[in-house]
Structure formats: structure tokens, C-alpha cells
Amino acid sequence: MDAPLDTGLPFRKMHGLGNDFVVLDGRVKVVTVSAALARALGDRRQGIGFDQLALIGPGQGDADAHLSFWNADGSTSAACGNATRCIARLLMDEGGKSRLRLTTARGTLLAEDAGGGLTRVNMGQPQTEWQDIPLAEAMDTLELPIEGAPTATGMGNPHCTFFVTDAEAVELEQFGPRHEHHPLFPERTNVQVASVTGPDRLRVRVWERGAGLTLASGSSSCAVAVAAARRGLTGRAVTVDLDGGTLLIDWREDGVWMTGPTAHVCDGVIVPAFLASVE
Fold first, then answer.
1. Phi, psi of 39 (to 5 degrees)
2. What CATH number matches the domain at 9-123+262-277, 3.10.310.10, 2.40.160.210, 3.20.20.140, 3.40.980.10?
């Protein structure tokens, strides 16, 4: 790690609807995140604990910042919707702006103040072709040849959405990991179970690739909304009710917009001895 071990490493703890993050800032001093560091920090008993670790880097060109993401198991992710919203709110408050351009491995994402304490991010166009998600072989992504005929969607990371009568009744602790590692998904997948509960309203529960059960997931909510619209179950603008709260998803011509609340919990410093222990 390039951040000095003798002074420790500052961090912020944030969450979007209980989908929680440790946020590191590498805009001034370079911070290098290894898989080992991400795993150590992500341990909820011996580290800090998070669903994802996010690193803010300096923006290139007209971008305000560059964002990188790691899951709690140390694997990387190109997209993390709720973390993007949290960081967008942080940077907008910091710079007095109402709109931002953020770059990620997913591409350039636009973020804006949605009013009423809410933050909106355009997560880009969904990926619906098998090779882009990716799947292991060519097939129709609307109904996969898996029991339950789920829909596959890419949002910079892979998603597998099962539409069920009652999302509450699914034993997600067993169902999620079984499908996360399905051979059709060579990079593993996020797993959602979703029920249509009203006109353009969905009840969604999420198992996150590399993190497990989570109270909410922004990219998963986008993927479920896209899948529901493709299957004719809802329109393109929906309310998604998650275990941790509600997101508004709107699949527009310019991409999938996600709107919801964010929370900045605390700031702290990871002590030098902990950093040295995972070198």
C-alpha cells in the first residue's frame, strides 16, 4: 500500500438502504487496494465490515472522480450503484455541485441531486446480449434454461433475476449461493428474487456476488427493473422495495436511472498495525 503506514489510512463508512460501504479517498495520496486488504477490511468481526469497498480516485478529463469497487471477498466489481450514489452525494456536498460525471470500469456515469435528500445516478444502458453479461454460451437471456426460467442482465456486473409469487418465502441463504456459482455464469452472478406487488412496483431480495445477503443493491434493482420491463410485467419506471428500503428505477433512452437516499455514518482511521498485518 502506498498510503503511509505510520499515519494510518482514513476511511468513511456509508450506506444506501443498509447496503454498506467503506470508502477510501485516493485523490490526494495514492491508495493501492489489494484483494487481501479488501478481505481484511470486509471482515465484520475482525475488520470494519462492508458489502463493498470503494476507492475514490482523481478524475480524468471532465470527470469529477474515478471510482473502483471491491466485494467483501476481495473480488472486484465494475459497478456498485448504491456506493456510486453515496460517493456522488459526498462529492456534491464537498464541492457545492448538483451534477457530477464519475468514471468507473462500467463507463462514465452521471449523478445529480434529486432533491429532498435523494441522489440520482444514471447506471448506463443494460446489457442484454449473452456475451456482454457474460454467459457461458449463446442463448436467449430473457428466460434462461434454469429451473424458474430467470432473466439474465448485465449492469457492468452479471445479474440473474427470478420472478416468484412471494419473494419473502424463498430461502435466499441457500438459493442465492447455489445460483451465484451456476456454470452458465463464468464470472458468477448476483441473484435476485422478485415479486410484482402492484402496478409498477416490485418486492426484491438480493444475494450479492462476493458479499452474500444484503439489505439492498442498486445495480440489482436496476437489473430487476430491466428484466421486469422486458418480460412485460411492469413499465420502465418502477418502485423497488428492498429489505432496507425503497429505490426508484427509471429505464430511459439514455440509461437506467436510480434514485434513493444515502447515509454517511462516520469517519475513522485504519491504524498502521492493521495495515501492516495484511501486507
1. -65, -40
2. 3.10.310.10
